[in-house]
Amino acid sequence: MSKGTLFDKVWEAHTVGILPSGQTQLLIGLHLIHEVTSPQAFAMLRDRGLTVLFPERTIATVDHIVPTDNQARPFADSLAEEMMQALEKSCQEYGITFYNIGSGSQGIVHVIAPELGLTQPGMTIACGDSHTSTHGAFGAIAFGIGTSQVRDVLASQTLALSKLKVRRVEVNGSLHPGVYAKDVILHIIRKLGVKGGVGYAYEFAGTTFEQMSMEERMTVCNMSIEGGARCGYINPDQVTFDYLKGLEFAPQGADWDQAIAWWQSIASDADAEYDDVVKFDAADIAPTVTWGITPGQGIGIDEKVPTPEDMPADERAIAAEAYQYMDLQPGHPIQGTKVDVCFIGSCTNGRISDLREAAKVAKGRHVAEGVKAFVVPGSERVKQAAEAEGLHTIFEAAGFEWREPGCSMCLAMNPDKLQGRQLSASSSNRNFKGRQGSASGRTLLMSPAMVVAAAVTGHVTDVRELL
Fold first, then answer.
1. Do residues 65 and 35 make contact, with C-beta atoms less than 8 angstroms apart?
2. 25-47 pLDDT, tens per residue?
3. Which CATH architecture has domain 6-161?
4. With 173 labelled, which of 106, 242, 283, 367 sits at a CA distance of 20 to 30 A?
């Protein structure tokens, strides 16, 4: 088993006890909730006559079901309005801080917690959303949990979990121009597989991650779950500290110096022992696009859709399913594939740095005829910052719709949905069948800059040709 890693240190520091099942009862330092998985959890509390043990450790927002075009209340979708009201009522009843629409801090849960300084190194964080792994970018151990576990955290501030193995995923070198954090994680998942991380926490390390900004690191950790890992993290360093300094919930004054000392101490030891180590070279990573129906079915923009003969025997069945569903031919280039919808946003790529990179490509160009393209900021603060920089005017001049914050088409639990067999170039995290709202809709995952390249040409394009 691993020894001396950040994961081991944080796990040990938060262990309440060992249960008869052999699982660890783990204290959860920060609990994030939203309108989709929490109403049922609160109902379970009421059924059992329980209350919220530490309401100050739970933070709420709304993101999944909120419309991004017209956010007037009541929502046109009666179920969405019902979910909103249920969360509003519960937060008021139990004294939970709630960042609602119009608060100035509403947004996707995995965007607002970092920008408020709630997410900090050495924490255990839980949320009823699979992409909670995002917060690992700060050196936190962050888990997505189910509805019954949301109930457990509300009632006890603890979770029963089995300890994970730790795999060090090392990437070294500088990325080529036009290659982004999204390409790095898609490349890793492609190589290790969507089930490769089962039973593991991923520690991302190496000079490539050291050179990344916090927002780029969040993109990488966000998609750890897509590689099968339960969580993913990066050791805290000066980049982490500089990001956090001065944020609303970050330590202040003398507490800041004390926090720095603690955060440095929980980083993995130089002689830490890992259950597995894999290494990649940044120079080998190209702009990457998924062609199939899992995030692991990805290829470099210069590559062709793989043929069955190119892949292991155990991957051929799902590849055959992907060929048919996606209507792509094995052995044909992915470049040039016609797109119908282009979406920039999500907890993976809806931050200000993502919008800046996308705007660089959009500036002076225009969305191709017949393509629907829109940009959805990850939070109200991201939207405000983007508008202060004039990014919205660049997008609008290029023919993109500029929307209100929310999860939007990432999972389409709102009005933003694909129609029929439309094919989407998306900066989100999942390309499962029906993920973007249509049972037959198709999704190609790529970086925000690559999404813009597809939007302005009308087909999958190597963004490096436009830079």
1. yes
2. 999 999 999 999 999 999 999 99
3. 2-Layer Sandwich (3.30)
4. 242
Task: Output the pLDDT for position 112.
Answer: 98
115/117 Cα distance (integer angstroms): 5
Strands (E), 206-252: 231-233
Alpha helix ranges (H) inside 6-139? 6-13, 38-48, 78-94, 109-116
- Decide if 358 contacts 344 (C-beta within 8 A): yes
- 402 to each of 187, 288, 361, 399, 410, how far by Cα in Å? 30, 26, 16, 9, 16
Ranges of residues in the chain whose predicted pLDDT is under 50: none
Signed CA dihedral, 188, 191, 194, 200: sign only:
negative
Q: Are 318 and 427 in contact (CB under 8 A)?
A: no
Confidence at residue 353, expressed as pLDDT on a 0 to 100 scale: 98
Q: How many residues does the chain have?
A: 467
Considering the chain, tell me which residue range(s) the CATH 3.30.499.10 domain(s) occupy. 6-161, 288-465
Q: What is 165-284's CATH topology?
A: Aconitase; Domain 2 (3.40.1060)
Cα distance between residue 374 and residue 367, in whole Å: 10
Tell me how crowded residue 384 is: count the other CB atoms within 10 A of its CB.
14
Nearest to 336 by CA among 165, 460, 160, 447: 460
Q: How far apart are CA 467 and CA 449, in angstroms?
A: 10
Position 313 scores a pLDDT of: 93
CA separation (Å) from 287 to 146, 327, 333, 448?
34, 22, 14, 11
C-alpha 365/C-alpha 435 separation (Å) is 29
Question: Distance between CA atoms of 314 and 291, rounded to whole angstroms?
Answer: 18
Contacts of 427 (CB under 8 A, 6+ apart): 182, 343, 344, 345, 346, 348, 349, 350, 354, 445, 446, 447, 448, 451
Q: What is the pLDDT of residues 87-131, one digit of tens each?
A: 999 999 999 999 999 999 999 999 999 999 999 999 999 999 999
How buried is 370 (Cβ within 10 angstroms: 0-12 exposed, 13-18 middle, 19+ buried)? Answer: exposed
Mean of all residue pLDDT scores within the chain: 97
Q: What pLDDT was estimated at residue 430? A: 97
Residue 324, SS3 per DSSP: helix
**In this structure, what are the phi and psi dihedrals at residue 52, rounded to the nearest 5 degrees?**
-85, 120
